[in-house]
Amino acid sequence: MKRFAPFFILIIAVLTSCSVPQYVTVPVNYGPKTGFSYDSTTIVIVSHYKPDSVKIRDFRRISVLNKMAVTSLQTAANQLKYLKGVHVINLVDTVNNKINTDSVKFLAAAHKASYVLVLNDIVAGIYPQTSYYNGVASTYYTTKMKASLSLYESNGIYSKKLVGMAEVAQDEGYSSMFSRPSYRSSIPAMTTATQDATLDALKDYLPYSIANERPLYADNDALGTSVGQIKLGKFNMAFKILNPLIDGTDAKLASKAAYNLAVVYEAQGDIDEALKTAKLSNQKYSNDFAKALIVDLMKE
Q: Is 18 inside a domain boundary?
């Protein structure tokens, strides 16, 4: 067995010398891209959706689509009411009202509203999808929903079309091509897809968040300690460890420290400083982590 000792020693040396990055989840919260024109805003939400009984002959489908229309209205109301200064009036049973300049002005005046949000249409579909794993095909069904709304100003003249789409995979119980799911059996998937489609339509007016999985350099004691502090959310401690390293003479270490600090700034929501520090990391010593982070931050 002694003759294999150098081989095992070599493996251990290689493994211990490898730099294995650690990962941290960085949630990033964003405010709405646009807002409403007044500090205190009342929005009336109404439905103008009525399934086309000529095209859709199945009364059960019509019943499900009507339920999805209510789901869309409720989703819009539940989300908008949490915005600062926004009060929502949800008039679910308004399908017979004609939507034109006069009717919008009337609704806005009657409820002292600044805006009228109208649900125009709900489109549903159930489609087969095929995915491949290790060369083996698997077929399943997915539910796709489209929500079409219009946001009117109180004068009834100016409006903005809001369209959202979403899809949800069916439960595995309906994956077989021999048992196409019906609208009624797809209500859970349709409900989720309708909610998501409505949120997609309103996305410019709502805050949202994403979670990024960021690699971190941890290949020496100082960097490893900074990673531990970052994972604990102790960003001030991480800053105290990393900042002196950035000004050091070791370009590679300075680059890695700057990159880790850029992730700290991103985790704190300071995107501008994160981008600046990620660029500094790449200037100190070109590295793929910083390049990828720069691309993501420029999108954010």
A: no
Same-domain pairing of 221 and 87: no
Question: In this predicted structure, what is the pLDDT of residue 35?
Answer: 86
* Residue 144 near residue 125, CB atoms below 8 Å: yes
Does 167 share its domain with 110?
Answer: yes
* The total number of structural domains that make up the chain: 2
Strands of 115-133's sheet, edge to edge?
Answer: 86-91, 41-47, 115-133, 136-153, 159-169
DSSP 3-state helix, strand, coil percentages of the chain (rounded to 5)? 45, 25, 30
Q: How many CA atoms lie within 13 A of 36 on its CB side?
A: 25
Residue 234 belongs to what domain range? 210-299
Cβ–Cβ < 8 Å for 76, 195: no
Count Cβ atoms below 10 Å from residue 179 Cβ, excluding itself. Answer: 11
pTM equals 0.65
CA dist., res. 177 & res. 128, Å (int): 8
- Collapsed DSSP state (helix, strand, coil) of residue 300: coil
Higher local confidence (pLDDT), 25 or 276: 276
Using an 8 Å Cβ cutoff, are 181 and 125 in contact? no
Domain CATH for 169: 3.30.160.150
Tell which of 208, 235, 269 closes a domain: 208
pLDDT above 90 covers what percent of the chain? 58
Strand partners for 87: 42
Q: Which of 208, 231, 255 is the last residue of a domain?
A: 208
Strand pairing report for 22-30 and 86-91: unpaired
